[in-house]
């Protein structure tokens, strides 16, 4: 078995490309020591960190009813529910369906809390805290305090025991696409203060450096990143294709700000040669982030693109 750390980018339905990449890496004999992910990347990362093999990941995703992911709020009527959700809950959809699905899948693998995903710190970075020895790291954004959250690493900021926190809840926080899925709330167990948590992509959608050593020691194995969003500026209209239509200048600027918020921070890292060479880039241009009505053929095409991208990448790295 070849050992690697893995970092998975977020991107909604485009994440089926990530599924294909993870499946192919497993099929090629790779074992993941640690996995970090944002949004849908966190969802796939959680399954892999829980020990799911290629067959089990395929089966789990087969039980995900894609059309149910955008779950309407009461009265569960098209457009009306979305409008009421935006006005009263700051988002068009609840986001509970995908959280409950993931919780069931993880429980079947024997994982409920991050305590089930602790790992032995043998040979880890000497600068890592005891709260950083886990197989999984989920990226989310605390908009109340304006900070990136690396869960379970940062639960101490809320005086919470990381071992006791739900993995499915953390992933759901990371998937809170602003205005699309309802934001989550995280309460400090000591002060009682509550923070609003949204999609990790707002601050970091591709934290490929998260497992890099900081103690000056040689790395034990490489970190590979799986990327599903296009480069800027050429791909700016492919992040949210529905925003690709010509817009008046003020709205065109707003579009660029929105897209840059999701991918601009990571684009800076990708411009570094040492980052680009460890990144598996997948073509997901055939779907939008929120294309939850994608048919089975489109989903399989995304999975195939992920598998092909891994084969191409490994041809240069093995």
TrEMBL record:
Q: Name one GO biological process term.
A: lipid catabolic process
Parts of the chain that traverse the membrane: none
> Where are the catalytic residues?
39, 199
| Source organism, top-level taxon | Bacteria
Motif GXGXXG, residue numbers: 10-15
Using the record's annotation, list all stretches that form the PNPLA domain: 6-212
The molecular function GO annotations come to: hydrolase activity
Q: Does the keyword Lipid metabolism apply?
A: yes
Q: Among its keywords, does the record have tRNA processing?
A: no
Q: Which UniProt keywords apply?
A: Hydrolase, Lipid degradation, Lipid metabolism
Q: Where is this motif: DGA/G?
A: 199-201
Task: Report the residue ranges where the short sequence motif GXSXG is annotated in this entry.
Answer: 37-41
Q: What is this protein called?
A: NTE family protein
Q: Report the source organism.
A: Saccharopolyspora shandongensis
